[in-house]
Write a structure and sequence with these properties.
Elements (H helix, E strand, L loop, with lengths): L2 E10 L4 H10 L4 H4 L4 E8 L8 E8 L2 E13 L4 E9 L1 H4 E11 L2 E10 L8 H19 L1
Antiparallel strand pairs: 1-7, 2-3, 3-4, 4-5, 5-6, 6-7
Length: about 150
């Protein structure tokens, strides 16, 4: 069994967390245009929009390397502006047995929570990925403030 971990990062957004949540919930397909060079492609493979059971895939550039991620939407809570994305394929699963990403947005904050299990003890914590998603959030904020 691997080493379990939880990593949380929050960033203040002047546009309001509810607007960032709206991008991730109903306008996700715009993210590659909002964050060119970071997010190269987004596709809904099964289902429609971001709803429980939908399967989505991403192509992104993390720390100068092209990566992929396939996720299933496990939960969407419009009250707390939270989306739970479980990774089911892609580069993350080369290092981790399981990886869940929780996006929550409220008032002036967007929070990213990673719940994961590393395959071995010497696998690094996903700090670079957390930094990447915080930068994506700031790009979205900049887009919304234009």
């Amino acid at each position: 069994m691997g080493v379990k971990g939880k990593l949380i990062g929050s960033v203040e957004v002047k546009c309001g967390g509810h607007l960032v949540h709206d991008i991730f919930h109903s306008k996700t397909h715009h993210i590659p245009n909002i964050c060119p060079g970071k997010v190269n492609h987004f596709e809904i493979q099964e289902g429609e929009n971001i709803k429980v059971g939908s399967v989505v895939s991403w192509k992104y550039n993390d720390d100068g390397k092209d990566k992929t991620c396939k996720q299933v939407i496990e939960a969407v809570d419009p009250q707390t502006k939270t989306i739970t994305w479980k990774v089911i394929g892609g580069d993350l699963l080369e290092l981790y047995n399981s990886f869940t990403i929780i996006t929550s947005c409220n008032h002036q904050w967007t929070t990213w929570t990673f719940v994961y299990e590393k395959k071995t003890e010497d696998i690094p914590e996903p700090l670079v990925l957390l930094g990447f998603l915080l930068h994506v959030t700031k790009d979205i904020e900049g887009h919304l403030l234009k």
